[in-house]
């Protein structure tokens, strides 16, 4: 039952993002908002993940990982339903915030649940978790436009709430079983928790230094942040760019799905590659080249070879799983890993919020794509600087 809860919850962690972006062009016409508001919708995911990455541990320490997982799925379901019933831009915005709050909580509580209930299968369950999460990113983008054409945009946005409700049911079952103190689940739970702390897995060991004093940590934050900035900008704007180039809205959604599919491949392969390379900066250079090639193709000849441009665009964010892998490769202690992860993801997601919004402001101001892509190209330069600092073979504890 715990496994079912983890898998179903993982599927829900990105549905609010990619079920909306292929429909933003249609919703923009319906509700009359402009490119700047489209950028606001694009920045919400990274903003929610940053805020709830900080807030969720305190919630989980108080109510427990299992209840926090249940709460995350209930929030996701409620937000998705509210968004599908929206009568205007504010309703879409509020529903998105609630849904993404739940998904941001899920990002934090699912990995320690894997560690608590499957300590001897962490690698296998984590791979399953990542794979299902990526399928939950791909499928909504693929079916959003066809489903909206067949049943309306409200159904297209709201149908994903059913999977969030389904993900909540196993956690309800787990909590009911844990009330029976003679059950194996109750014994596992009681063994894991501590007095006054229902989620000790989320307690960071005390650090002897500050990550902010290390150029390694700043490099990691810049690499992670610029990768996320580019990724969420493209999640938001790729469908509209394709439609303006002459493609159908369904084709735009399919391109988002292809973009996400290549993210799955890199998420599964990059950790195995990174641990075998002393200095993985050549990988960062290759990712930057993919980004720049994709930007040039999408800007100057978007319909000449769209599959090629989007394939390059999907390979560029391989620096995301690389950054996550380097957290453990560039630290010696659990305290170092926790400090580096917190600094990297906190600052990184804060920087990522700017991407979709700036892209929209520049597009609205210039009525073209040149300056928005110039902004993304500048982000690639910052990514290279961060990658050079992050990839040099050294340890955080030596420089913090």
How would you characterize this protein structure?
This protein is an all-alpha fold and 400 residues long. It folds into two domains: 1-203, Up-down Bundle (Growth Hormone, Chain: A); 209-400, MFS general substrate transporter like domains (Growth Hormone, Chain: A, Up-down Bundle), CATH 1.20.1250.20. Helix content is 79%, strand content 0%. It contains 18 helices and no strands. It has helices spanning 2-11, 15-18, 24-31, 35-63, 65-84, 89-117, 122-151, 153-158, 160-178, 184-192, 215-244, 249-274, 281-300, 306-315, 319-329, 334-352, 354-366, 370-391. Helix 1 runs antiparallel to helix 6, helix 1 (2-11) packs antiparallel against helix 9 (160-178) and helix 4 runs antiparallel to helix 16. The longest helix has 30 residues, at 122-151. The chain is globular. The protein starts with a helix and ends in a 9-residue tail after the last helix. GO terms for molecular function: transmembrane transporter activity. It comes from Luteimonas cucumeris. The chain crosses the membrane at residues 40-61, 68-86, 92-114, 126-151, 157-177, 216-238, 250-269, 281-301, 307-327, 339-363, 369-391. Pfam families: MFS_1 (PF07690). Keywords: Membrane, Transmembrane, Transmembrane helix.
What distance lies between the first and last C-alpha atoms, to the nearest angstrom?
A: 42 Å
- Provide a count of the helices: 18
Radius of gyration: 21 Å
Main β-sheet, in a few words? none
Instruction: Using the 3D structure, state the CATH architecture of the largest domain.
Output: Up-down Bundle
| Domains, number | 2
Mean residue pLDDT: 93
Strand-pairing-aware structural class:
mainly alpha
Q: What is the CATH superfamily of the largest domain?
A: MFS general substrate transporter like domains
CATH topology tier name of the largest domain: Growth Hormone, Chain: A
Which term fits the overall shape?
globular
């Amino acid at each position: 039952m715990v496994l079912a809860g983890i898998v179903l919850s993982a599927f829900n962690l990105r549905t609010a993002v990619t079920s909306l972006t292929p429909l933003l062009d249609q919703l923009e016409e319906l509700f009359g908002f402009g490119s700047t508001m489209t950028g606001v919708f694009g920045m919400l995911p990274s903003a929610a993940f940053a805020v709830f990455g900080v807030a969720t541990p305190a919630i989980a320490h108080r109510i427990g990982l299992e209840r926090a997982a249940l709460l995350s799925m209930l929030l996701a379901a409620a937000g998705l339903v509210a968004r599908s019933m929206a009568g205007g831009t504010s309703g879409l915005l509020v529903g998105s915030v609630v849904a993404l709050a739940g998904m941001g909580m899920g990002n934090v509580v699912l990995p320690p649940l894997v560690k608590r209930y499957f300590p001897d299968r962490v690698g296998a369950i984590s791979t399953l978790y990542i794979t299902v999460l990526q399928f939950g990113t791909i499928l909504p983008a693929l079916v959003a436009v066809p489903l909206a054409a067949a049943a309306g945009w409200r159904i297209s946005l709201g149908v994903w709430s059913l999977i969030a409700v389904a993900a909540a049911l196993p956690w309800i079952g787990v909590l009911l079983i844990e009330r029976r103190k003679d059950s194996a689940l109750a014994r596992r739970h009681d063994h894991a928790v501590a007095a006054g702390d229902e989620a000790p897995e989320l307690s960071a060991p005390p650090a002897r230094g500050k990550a902010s004093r290390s150029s390694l940590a700043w490099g990691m934050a810049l690499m992670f942040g610029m990768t996320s900035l580019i990724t969420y900008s493209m999640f938001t704007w790729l469908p509209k760019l394709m439609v303006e180039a002459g493609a159908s809205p369904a084709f735009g959604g399919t391109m988002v799905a292809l973009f996400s599919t290549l993210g799955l491949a890199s998420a599964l392969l990059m950790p195995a590659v990174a641990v075998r390379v002393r200095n993985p900066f050549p990988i960062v250079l290759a990712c930057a080249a993919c980004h720049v090639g994709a930007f040039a193709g999408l800007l100057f000849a978007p319909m000449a070879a769209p599959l090629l441009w989007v394939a390059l665009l999907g390979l560029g964010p391989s620096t995301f799983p690389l950054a996550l892998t380097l957290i453990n490769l560039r630290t010696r202690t659990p305290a170092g890993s926790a400090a580096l992860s917190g600094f990297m993801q906190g600052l990184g997601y804060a920087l990522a919020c700017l991407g979709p919004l700036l892209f929209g402001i520049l597009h609205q101001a210039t009525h073209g794509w040149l300056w928005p892509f110039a902004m993304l190209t500048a982000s690639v330069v910052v990514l290279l600087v961060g990658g050079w600092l992050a990839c040099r073979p050294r340890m955080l504890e030596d420089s913090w």
